[in-house]
């Protein structure tokens, strides 16, 4: 179970310490425990989490993908983010016209996804950027894309702080996005640590 790159209260008021305590200590921990149990005596016993997301199926895929998705989500956040660099803004402009155009499209996808799932910014092999809404444990690796940024829209991600106000949660997400981490993932592609 990797440690968070910030204190549990560091994202307040946009994400409370109570939310992070439950989200990391209960939800993510359960997925990681399940992965460790399910991969024993399987062909994936020595595989990385990313390889399990790419190649496993059934319960192992669901738990590995949820563990991976959560780890990336928490690394996509930071307490005092710098604005995106001119390089990243230009990359987003190619496919979304502007930074605001990207944020609006991503937010619309987050509000439109019915039920539980994830909203992704992902890159294909030519570094073209895509916004991908995926239900349940969906991950862009299953579509041959590299995940860069994600937003968890399962209710457990926001219900303590926002109750049923997903729109407020999505709006506040932009105040804590770690743009430097997103840029690093885009530049490094497959040469990344597993999350």
Low-confidence stretches: none
Query: Per CATH, which architecture of the largest domain?
Result: 3-Layer(bab) Sandwich
- Beta-strand portion reads 5-15%
Which strands sit side by side, in order, in the main sheet? Answer: 2-1-3
Main features:
single chain; 195 residues; mainly alpha; Helix Hairpins; minor pseudopilin epsh fold; 2 domains; 8 helices
Would you mind describing this structure in some detail?
- This protein is mainly α and 195 residues long.
- It has 2 domains: 17-75, Fe,Mn superoxide dismutase (SOD) domain (Helix Hairpins); 86-188, 3-Layer(bab) Sandwich (minor pseudopilin epsh fold), CATH 3.55.40.
- It has 8 helices and 3 strands; from the N terminus they run H-H-H-H-H-E-E-E-H-H-H.
- Strands 2-1-3 form a 3-stranded antiparallel sheet, with helices on both faces.
- A hairpin with a 5-residue loop joins strand 1 and strand 2 (129-135).
- The radius of gyration is 16 Å and the shape is globular.
- The model has no long low-confidence stretch (mean pLDDT 95).
């Amino acid at each position: 179970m990797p440690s968070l790159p910030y204190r549990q209260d560091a994202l307040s008021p946009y994400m409370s310490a109570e939310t992070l305590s439950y989200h990391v200590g209960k939800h993510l921990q359960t997925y990681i425990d399940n992965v460790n149990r399910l991969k024993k005596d399987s062909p994936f016993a020595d595989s990385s989490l990313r390889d399990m997301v790419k190649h496993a199926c059934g319960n192992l895929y669901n738990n590995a993908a949820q563990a991976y998705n959560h780890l990336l989500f928490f690394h996509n956040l930071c307490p005092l983010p710098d604005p995106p660099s001119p390089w990243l803004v230009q990359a987003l402009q190619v496919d979304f016209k502007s930074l605001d155009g990207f944020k609006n499209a991503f937010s619309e996808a987050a509000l439109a996804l019915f039920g539980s799932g994830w909203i992704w910014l992902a890159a294909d092999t030519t570094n073209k950027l895509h916004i991908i809404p995926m239900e349940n444990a969906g991950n862009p690796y299953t579509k041959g894309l590299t995940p860069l940024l994600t937003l968890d829209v399962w209710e457990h991600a926001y219900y303590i702080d926002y109750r049923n106000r997903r729109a407020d949660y999505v709006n506040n997400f932009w105040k804590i996005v770690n743009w430097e981490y997103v840029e690093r993932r885009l530049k490094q592609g497959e040469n990344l640590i597993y999350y």
